Each structure stands twice: as C-alpha cells, then as structure tokens.
Amino acid sequence: MRLDVNLLDYALIAIYFATVLAIGFAARRRITTSLDFFLAGRGLPAWITGLAFVSANLGAIEILGMAANGAQYGAMTVHFYWIGAIPAMVFLGIVMMPFYYRSKVRSVPEFLRRRFNGATQLLNAITFAVAQILIAGVNLYALALVMEALLGWPLPVSVVVSAVIVLSYITLGGLSSAIYNEVLQFFVILAGLIPLTVLGLIKVGGVSGLFEKVRQSPLGEGGLHTWAGTAGDNPMHAHWIGIVFGLGFVLSFGYWTTNFAEVQRALSARNTNAARLTPIIAAYPKIFIPLVTVLPGLIALVLFGDLGQGRAYNDAIPLLMGDLLPNGVLGVAVTGLLASFMAGMAANISGFNTVFTNDIWQAHLVKDRPDGYYLRVGRIATVVGVVMGVGTAFIAAGYSNIMNYLQALFSFFNAPLFATFIVGLFWKRMTPWAGFWGLLAGTLAAFTSYILYKSGVVAFGTELNASFWGAGIAFGVDVLVSVVVTLVTTAKPESELRGLVYGLTVDLEDDALAGDAKWYRSPVLLGAGAVVLAIAMYGVIL
C-alpha cells in the first residue's frame, strides 16, 4: 500500500502542521481563566460551533471505520447516519441544550451532580474519562496504521509525532484552539475525501457500474439496500428492532445527547439559541457524509477482491488512496487523514481534561483552590491524557474493523448514561441514588452482554448487532433499577430540581441576541428540515 509521496505532498503536510500550531499560539493569548480554556469563554457563534461539532465526530475512526463498515456490511452502514445520528442531534438541540446551557454547567457529569448527587457525577466522570482515553487510542492507532502503510513511517514515529502536534495546540489554546482547528479540519478532510470518491466512481463505471459490481461481490444484492431483509437475512445480521431501538434510539441518543466530547462544543456557544443551533447545523453536513465514507468502502470492496480476507476492512481508504490519487491530490488526502485524526483525538482529549479537572479533581479530590490552579491542572491532564491514549492505541489493533470496537464502547458507556439522563430529565420523582445505581447496573449489564457474546454463550451474529442488543439491554436494566431504587429512596425537593427537570423551569435572564427570532435561526424549523431530509435520503436506497 506504500504511496509514491513526493516533495509537494510533504510540503502540503508541513503547511498543515504549521497552520494548526499557529492557531494554537493565537488562541493562547485569549486564555486567562479556566472557563476560557475548557469552554472557549462561551463566546463562539453557532456556525463555528456547528462545524466543530460535526468535525469532532469526523475523526479517523469515522473515516476508516465507516469505510470499513461500507465494505463489510454495504449500504446498511448509512443507518449510523440517517437514523443513528440525525434524530438524536435534533433532539439534543431542541430539547436538551436549554437544560445544559442555561444551568451553566461545565460538563455532563456536573449536570448529573446537580440532578442526582456527587456519587453519580463521579461514576459518570470516571467512565467517561476511561472511554475518552480508549477512543483516543483508537484514533492514534488508526492514524499510525495509515502513516506506516502509506508513508513508510515506523508506527512509533507516527504515533508520537501526531500526538505531540495535538498535545501542543490543545495545551496552548484549550477548547478555542481545538474548535478553530476543527473548522479548518472539516474542510481539509472533505478536500481529501471528495476526489477519492469521484475518482473511485469513475474507475468502477459510475454509480450504475458500482451497483452491478456490488451485486457480484460477497455482499450480493443485500449490500445495496438499507431496510430490505431486516426481518430476515442481511449482511449485518441485524433485525429491524435492533436497528430502530438499539441503534436509532439507545446508542444514537446515548452518544449524541450525553457524550460530553460533543456537547462541549455546544456549551462554548455565545448564547442559548446558538447552543441549540450547534448540533442542528452539524446535522446537515452529517446527512451527506456517507457519500465520502460509506461509498468509498463499497468502491474498495469491488476493486480489491481480498478485502476482509487477506486484508483488513480498515485498509479500504488507504488502498484507494494508493491506487487512485496523483501527487498533490495525494498530499491533500494524506493531510485530510491527519486532520481527521487530530479532530477526533482533540475532541477526546479536550473532553477528558475538562471532566478530569472539574468533575474528579476539583469536585472530589482538591477543592477550593484559585482558578489558576485548575487551569494548570487542566493542562497537565491534557499531557496525561495524550500519553495514556498512546498506551491504549494497541487495544484497537485486535479488531479488523475498528468501528466494531467503537460501537462496543458506546454500548458500555453511552447507552446506560442516556437511560439515567432521560428518565431523570422527564421524571422528577427519580431519586439521587436511583441515578447512581441505575447507571452502575446498566453499565455492568452492557459488559455482561458483550462478554456472553464473545464467549459464545449468546449468538448475536455480528459485533455490530451485539452492540445494538447490548445497548438495548443496558438501557432496559438501567431504567428498571432506577424505578425500583426510586420507590425505596427519598427524592430531592422540587426547589433543588428547577432548571434540571422538564416542567420545572427557573427564571433566567433572556440571553437572546438581535436576529435570533428570524426563521433561519429557529432550532425547531431547521431541526425538522434535517429530519425530513434524512428520511428523504432513505427513499433513494431502501
């Protein structure tokens, strides 16, 4: 897979590295308080935070993993976008962001402390921190895999060089630096993936040629459909109940509405309306991302006959780059992969340093210190998080398709959190200890389900289907335990729940800005448009 990289390609990569570091140095001048470092001073416009929101998710995991899914499972991979992302992103913007933003919390675990208790905050903070380090490791492994294969860089060199770049600009400029770099990275990623997709389609004879070749591949006709066969046989071995409930509801809402690595971008917005618009603006490009991730996976499947047999599905994008791209364009594509890695890992590490500092260190270990002290702790946590991410990178090496590993992590950590959060948000009677024990029980249930699948006790068919069902089981167990514990413990008084539970509002100063009332800044209208567009996309391939 070695690429014929020349001086022009390396020059483009060097320019990109220099640019992201320059953004970090520029952002450093604005960092005077911990709020500036962790939440960009809550002063960014919606279009900036919206692009950062989608870019933070468009990491190396997304690009390599969804292309791998496209090659392994075919068109059914679009479920991760159209039912597995858009409805939850719209729900986050319309329903949940007002609670997050107006409560002035700095993180999701801090919201859980106010709604439940310190034990629930600490449990969520620890599981979130572990998850972010593991996912950062996946990003590191994905990048190292690409750099070693394409450029000939030794794996340790690839990991260390890239980790140092991310470490530098986050430590310098905090979330502001991460967000502005993510906006840049969004366009760099597309600049690398669009030519790859177009040239790939040309080589296989256009869309019609691709479809015909997929029919002749191991996927067969099932590789071209999304819902057909979901009551019986399909490439993913997934039933429509698992797709709708496990992916479309539990995994999707669990990830997009409670994952602080994403929510953090919206919390940095300049007012409530901008915070609500953040995930909704991000939803529109998210709808079309499958065109540059899933589609290349299908192209790689028909061009390279040993994919999934002699070669890992993770190699789909690197193989296409080596086969299709000329110099110059190749440099842009490699830079795009670097950008995707940095966007993904920056989201993981900025989320980790915020939660570790505010929800573990300050809330439970070292309290009542000056603000500058916690700013220093945040920078140290950034270094520690990157180093630990390097250590966990090799766990991902055991998976031929890294997206399988990632979805398993989401079923462990996000699905039970969503159950605790959504029940607590809409049921004021839910008690503080119900939050803790429900979250713990749901997390353990997800682990148990996965272990039973891996040991052969339960047959789910595929890793992804196991994650769908594991997420559903975790959600159900969490809700059941929460209800039982609520019935035998004492609830908080309503006065402590105002602004934290649906229906118990609190009088806050109106932070609307001029122009927020215009129709094109309406979260409800724009959110409805995104959902309708996602449904319409399904009409193209059923």
From TrEMBL:
It is a multi-pass membrane protein. It comes from the Bacteria. The chain crosses the membrane at residues 6-27, 47-68, 80-101, 122-144, 150-172, 184-202, 237-256, 277-304, 324-343, 377-399, 405-427, 434-453, 468-488, 524-541. It is found in: Membrane. Signal peptide: none annotated. Keywords: Membrane, Transmembrane, Transmembrane helix. Belongs to the sodium:solute symporter (SSF) (TC 2.A.21) family. PANTHER family: SODIUM_GLUCOSE COTRANSPORTER 4 (PTHR11819:SF195), SOLUTE CARRIER FAMILY 5 (PTHR11819). This is Sodium:solute symporter family protein. It comes from Nonomuraea roseola.
